[in-house]
Design brief:
By secondary structure, the protein is an alpha/beta fold. The protein has helices at residues 2-18, 22-29, 48-56, 89-94, 96-107, 117-122, 229-240, 242-247, and strands at 33-38, 43-45, 59-64, 77-80, 82-83, 112-115, 125-128, 131-134, 142-145, 151-159, 171-178, 180-182, 191-198, 206-211, 214-217.
Length: 248
């Protein structure tokens, strides 16, 4: 914990040195970026430092429960972290209105950022222990669970394709741990934005599924190592301004 705190404090100091006006500009304009985070038993893996980094960028965070809430309310950015959605697949499937609300708003241009378990949840179906369950259907890809980890370890990637958040040619480092993989032959309504130099990601060579303003990758990034992560997410969310636009 002390090591993480030291790293994050160093990140904040470096960030303020590199981009000193970002948070002050938001404060002066009075613009609020509303970030919705799905946090519940199905999606529980988040770096607290990442959430703090979003707040440092001026974001206001609210939380959703994909198992209990009836729907998401419009936000400027929906952040879905890692977890074990396959274990809760029956309950996730049962909450159809919540899943439909994500697909609806994503289809209208709401920015969505997903990590690991979110890749499955944003897909069409997930098959676990012989049972296939319906997910959000943002990406028309089906997933299955292997008996051994498909991806486990450090990831090195280059941004090679268009996506809502990260500039091309940006070099990224993260990590992955997942048993899920796409069912062979499924998936065609999205692009892959990350070319992998190390790691497995989505298919052994690429990661980062993209459709409209939705980005979902098996790779986890930490704000202490990817110092522009929060700034890029909040900048996109603020530029789109989906929450306000949905009210008009």
């Amino acid at each position: 914990p002390k090591r993480v705190e030291k790293t994050f404090q160093g990140y904040k100091a470096q960030f303020c040195q590199d981009t000193p006006a970002t948070c002050q500009d938001m404060a002066q304009t009075g613009k609020t970026v509303l970030v919705g985070v799905i946090r519940d038993p199905a999606f529980q893996f988040y770096y607290e430092e990442n959430l703090e980094a979003l707040r440092e960028q001026g974001a206001t965070i609210i939380f959703f429960d994909s198992l209990r809430d009836k729907a998401i309310t419009p936000v400027d950015l929906l952040y879905i972290g890692g977890g074990f959605p396959e274990v809760h697949a029956a309950s996730l499937e049962a909450n159809k209105d919540f899943r439909d609300s994500i697909r609806f708003h994503a289809g209208r241009g709401m920015p969505v950022y997903g990590e690991c378990g979110a890749v499955m949840y944003l897909g069409r179906t997930v098959c676990f222990n012989g049972e296939t369950r319906q997910m959000c259907g943002v990406f028309d890809v089906d997933f299955e669970l292997a008996k051994k980890p498909v991806g486990h370890g450090y990831v090195e990637a280059v941004v090679s394709g268009a996506n809502p958040f990260f500039p091309r040619d940006e070099r990224l480092k993260g990590h992955e741990f997942h048993y899920s993989r796409p069912v062979e032959g499924s998936g065609s309504n999205f692009q892959l934005a990350l070319s992998l130099q190390k790691g497995f990601g989505y298919n052994g060579a690429s990661d980062g599924l993209v459709k409209n303003n939705v980005f979902a990758a098996y790779t986890h990034f930490h704000a202490g190592g990817f110092t522009n992560w929060a700034r890029l997410l909040v900048a996109k969310a603020g530029a789109v301004g989906y929450a306000q636009g949905a009210k008009e």
